[in-house]
């Protein structure tokens, strides 16, 4: 078996065609290189070089063996590199606290990135309620975890020992059994608290959110049942037991699919957070996990969308064509007859969809009044002057994407698309392929056209670009 230095001498002389130049590259003396070549040829019983006035040239046997020698050196270099990498490879076990459903916290994408970055790291998952995960982290029983809290609060002032990073914001809605609309004529908190409630333990974010709005008013929910799992809670609401809280996407899906009542005008802001012990923030395993929970870190879990797509608006009950444009900052929904009013001290708007006869929508919503709370107002400056436009949050679906999206309301009937999706929607969840259109099927709604007909509608679409 030949040593690596001998193989390296053989390869270098073959490339340089000269013992002197090879010796210079290898930082050896010429006699040392010549000796290695002599020993190699003697051990193999083969002549590998022939002398010429210009230097050394490989024989036929030398040419035949050169690729194998190069592969051997390359394999050894890869072996040494892999061995060196093991010194810096993160090992051990990461205990992760999970909450609600895996899809909501994007657990699959999180673990996929983690395994790719630290293949030697074992993961152990422990599922529980949000408050339980926080307690386990403070005790050191978990390394990191997911935690739900009112927006902007994180673990709270009494948890200075826990660091956190806010991942996303959303809302909880009050949901009621189908057919309870008559019992919800009054939606102030004293009236709602008096109705039957499905309550949750103190460790649950539902408990903390309700306590945050009821306790200052000296109120408490009229609890008739207590559950510690979201699935059980939904089953009891469907069975007509009482009210409960549900995440916005879940609440809208239950209303659409099962007819549950979503109480209008009542929303509790919440946030999803990633948490860990503050004093452990510099540990490599914690740094890896915290940096890994970065939706900008990987493209694997981002949806691909075309420059035009069908979207669904479950809050309104229709599909609409949307132009996708990363050049626009915010998203926009075509609206007309926009009227501002106040409800329970909050700013609301009432409007109709701004659509033309050519726009494809569910017919029953064409002239339907829509009401929504105003998230904020934006000032648009144009050549003709400036105007203030309301921004509302509506649940939107696009393929597998199901997210609350903020829409600026303005009349877009002079444009080709009633909806514009800007980069604030695209950020972290989608990429645009500008060469494609309608990569995702059109969602279906009661009273609307079948999704199969969308293909013909797409063909009829002239796909002219909006001038915006």
From TrEMBL:
Biased segments, Acidic residues type: 454-468
SUPFAM superfamilies the record matches: Acid proteases, Periplasmic binding protein-like II, Winged helix' DNA-binding domain
GO terms for MF: DNA-binding transcription factor activity; transcription cis-regulatory region binding
Keyword Ubl conjugation: no
Transcription is among the record's keywords: yes
Domain of life: Bacteria
Residue ranges constituting the HTH lysR-type domain according to the UniProt record: 1-59
Location of region: Disordered: 443-468
UniProt keyword annotations, A-Z: DNA-binding, Transcription, Transcription regulation
Family: Belongs to the LysR transcriptional regulatory family.
Record-given protein name: HTH-type transcriptional regulator CynR
Classification lineage: Bacteria, Pseudomonadati, Pseudomonadota, Gammaproteobacteria, Oceanospirillales
């Amino acid at each position: 078996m030949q040593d690596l230095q001998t193989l390296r001498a053989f390869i270098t002389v073959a490339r340089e065609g000269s013992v002197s130049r090879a010796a210079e590259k290898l930082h050896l003396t010429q006699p040392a290189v010549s000796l290695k070549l002599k020993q190699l040829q003697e051990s193999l019983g083969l002549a590998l070089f022939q002398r010429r006035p210009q230097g050394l040239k490989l024989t036929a046997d030398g040419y035949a063996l050169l690729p194998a020698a190069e592969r051997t050196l390359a394999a050894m270099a890869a072996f040494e590199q892999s061995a060196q990498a093991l010194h810096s490879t993160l090992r051990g076990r990461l205990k992760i606290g999970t909450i609600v459903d895996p899809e909501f916290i994007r657990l699959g994408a999180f673990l996929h990135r983690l395994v790719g970055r630290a293949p030697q790291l074992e993961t152990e998952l422990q599922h529980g309620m949000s408050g339980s995960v926080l307690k386990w982290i403070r005790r050191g029983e978990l390394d990191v975890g997911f935690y739900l809290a009112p927006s902007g609060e994180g673990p709270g002032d009494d948890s200075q020992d826990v660091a956190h990073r806010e991942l996303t914001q959303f809302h909880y809605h009050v949901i009621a059994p189908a057919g309870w609309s008559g019992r919800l004529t009054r939606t102030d908190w004293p009236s709602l608290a008096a109705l039957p409630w499905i309550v949750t333990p103190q460790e649950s974010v539902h408990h903390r959110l309700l306590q945050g709005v009821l306790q200052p008013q000296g109120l408490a929910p009229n609890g008739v049942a207590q559950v510690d799992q979201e699935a059980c809670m939904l089953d009891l609401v469907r069975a007509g037991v009482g009210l409960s809280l549900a995440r916005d996407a879940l609440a809208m899906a239950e209303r659409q699919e099962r007819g549950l009542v979503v109480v209008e005008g009542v929303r509790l802001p919440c946030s999803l957070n990633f948490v860990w012990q503050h004093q452990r923030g510099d540990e490599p395993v914690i740094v890896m996990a915290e940096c890994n929970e970065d939706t900008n870190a990987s493209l694997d879990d981002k949806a691909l969308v075309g420059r035009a797509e069908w979207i669904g608006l479950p809050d309104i009950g229709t599909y609409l064509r949307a132009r996708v444009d990363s050049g626009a900052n915010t998203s926009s929904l075509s609206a007309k007859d926009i009227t501002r009013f106040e409800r329970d001290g909050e700013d609301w708007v009432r409007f109709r969809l701004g659509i033309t006869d050519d726009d494809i929508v569910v017919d029953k919503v064409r002239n339907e009044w829509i009401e929504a709370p105003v998230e904020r107002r934006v000032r648009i400056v144009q050549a003709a002057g400036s105007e203030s436009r309301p921004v509302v949050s509506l649940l939107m679906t696009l393929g597998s994407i199901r997210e609350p999206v903020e829409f600026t309301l303005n009349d877009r009937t002079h444009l080709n698309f009633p909806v514009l999706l800007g980069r604030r929607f695209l950020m972290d969840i989608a990429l645009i392929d500008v060469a494609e259109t309608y990569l995702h099927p059109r969602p279906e709604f009661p009273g609307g056209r079948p999704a199969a007909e969308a293909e013909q509608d797409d063909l009829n679409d002239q796909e002219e670009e909006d001038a915006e």
